[in-house]
Amino acid sequence: MSLLTNTKVAVVTGGASGLGLATTKKFVAQNIKTIIVGRNEANLKQTADELGGLCSYKVCDLSDLAAIPALIKEIEAEFGTIDILVNNAGINLKKKFEEVSDEEFQRIVQTNVNSVFTISREVVKLMLEKGTGSIVNISSMAAQYGIPYVIAYTAAKTAIDGMTKAMAVELSPKGIRVNCVAPGFIKTAMSAKALDSDPERKNKVLSRTPMGYLGVPEDVAEAVYFLASDSAKYVTGAILPVDGGNSIGF
Length: 250
Description:
Elements: E1 9-13, H1 18-29, E2 33-38, H2 41-51, E3 55-59, H3 68-79, E4 84-87, H4 102-130, E5 133-138, H5 151-171, E6 176-183, H6 189-196, H7 199-207, H8 217-228, E7 239-242
Parallel strand pairs: 1-2, 1-4, 2-3, 4-5, 5-6, 6-7
């Protein structure tokens, strides 16, 4: 496939919606062959069709850990390599702490932590063969400070921050950089719905954000692209907040 000779290959989980879609668009615009992974084939296909030849998709429920090794082997067989992995796919649950069941907690952790570990492990095996690669995890401000009603999500994203540092220390000597983007309150369909229905929460968010407004998915995509690219060749183990100052706001 001559198209790919000088083209980097990226895998973006959850790449057909929200922050993942913005990242996919940024990568494609930078001539990166991007394979998006998710559960919803209709969304994946629509995105790939819209973005053209540099975007392909694979259907996989990442909560099914046993399916991940075969997924990565399939991508390698078809595209030859994986230079960049963006662990973006994630799910949330907004519920009072005492009402969260064991099953609900485990479901969030399975998708947001366990699948990130498994797909990273499988991709790292390929990257080690080449001695180069870049992994970007997506965390959250929920890992920076306490937010009510998202205990499972908070636990999961805090784990992602820790995994990023541990992976970076172990893998960077072998040529693989591992970094993390921690989005603050970003204007997406999901967040708009949540905040618009809760004016008090929205005011609180904006009042402690020094820049005074919500970010957009493209803000996160730019940060992911920077960390994934050679521009960040001396950056590893970083957790980069993209939050308008929310995490340090008073």
